[in-house]
Amino acid sequence: MNYQLFGTKTGLRVSELALGTSNFGTATSYGADPAEARRIWEGYVAAGGNFIDTSDAYQQGEAERLVGQFMGADRGDFVLASKYSRTASPTAALAQLGNHRKAMTQAVEASLRRLGTDYLDLYLVHLPDSVTPVAEIARGFEDLARAGKILYGGFSNFPAWRVAAAVTLAELRGWIPLVGVQVEFSLLQRTAERELLPMAEGLGLGVMGYSPLGGGVLTGKYRQGESGRATVVGAEVDSPRINTMLDVLLAVAQEVGAAPGQVATAWAKARGVLPIIGARTRAQLDDQLRSAQLQLSPEQLQRLDAVSAVPLGYPHELLAAQHNLLTGNRADRVSWPARPVA
Ligand SMILES: NC(=O)c1ccc[n+]([C@@H]2O[C@H](COP(=O)([O-])OP(=O)(O)OC[C@H]3O[C@@H](n4cnc5c(N)ncnc54)[C@H](OP(=O)(O)O)[C@@H]3O)[C@@H](O)[C@H]2O)c1
């Protein structure tokens, strides 16, 4: 396993694959039992992994409890990220839910208790509640940091403009750095490339990409008629878009002698996103860890890019079309960034 900085706002070094824990536990009746979760943990740690992603909501708090047990006395060796907004209880009172300071304050205490630690390395707001201002969230993170409960803050599933406003405000006010975002990113979900990824690059934020296998679809197993999470939750597994994508993914996998899921994860990494592996079994983890060694050629990456591209829309397409105009028809002699700076 190699290590990299998580964004450029901090010297924090994390492993190139993060361990997702939404499958740790069976409280939602689908996941890994504690013994299997421990085997997944041990495999990840043995491979050199140090970046753990969890949430109060995963398996109704069971995931955090298991992570706490597995870390034990080695807590200091891990970069531990957790999230709030949804709580561990499916029947939580309204006052406990959302992004506001009351929810944040109560949630962090509950997470710390379940995790058996007195601080989180990274605390993310899980998803927007559509009402709490980002200034309240950023100030809440600052207060938690001053109280010694978190080291850094971040955002998950937020629109880019709201993250950018919060990061800028925190910087101007001298609050703790908001260092990263967590977004869905895979060959099947690339819309983060429109605003979120350029924003992260521009502001020096680390990017954790969740669902790198599209929930398992990108392993190609549903083509073999297997069942799994996607069929259990009734997700789409064989639309024309998915099939066109899988044709190219399987071809590249065969060329490099790897499993399709490993190629999909290596592709996400090559796009500058740090994948969060979501194994449900130790065998799946071992399989996914092999993506760290996989090198795809520029030509293979280009084929995967081409088959999975999403329209960037306005204003990006207008900007691309304006190159000639803005360079006085000397576009061939002016070097542009790979993607125009908006
Ligand atoms: N911030 C957020 O809102 C958010 C949302 C989602 C996830 N996350 C984080 O991201 C992590 C990963 O997300 P994800 O679980 O959606 O990732 P994913 O990799 O897209 O999907 C994981 C699923 O793929 C299947 N799988 C994994 N490895 C496999 C293999 N080698 N062969 C065959 N099937 C395999 C398993 O499903 P089967 O059950 O079919 O075996 C597993 O449950 C989560 O654990 C969580 O930490 C964050």
Automatic annotation (TrEMBL):
Signal peptide start and end residues: none
InterPro entries in the cross-refs: AKR_Detox_Biosynth, NAD(P)_OxRdtase_dom_sf, NADP_OxRdtase_dom
Domain NADP-dependent oxidoreductase intervals: 16-308
Alphabetical keyword list: Oxidoreductase
Top-level taxonomic group: Bacteria
Keyword Oxidoreductase carried by entry: yes
MF (Gene Ontology): oxidoreductase activity
PANTHER family referenced in this protein's UniProt entry, alphabetically: NAD(P)-LINKED OXIDOREDUCTASE SUPERFAMILY PROTEIN, NADH-SPECIFIC METHYLGLYOXAL REDUCTASE-RELATED
Record protein name field: Aldo/keto reductase
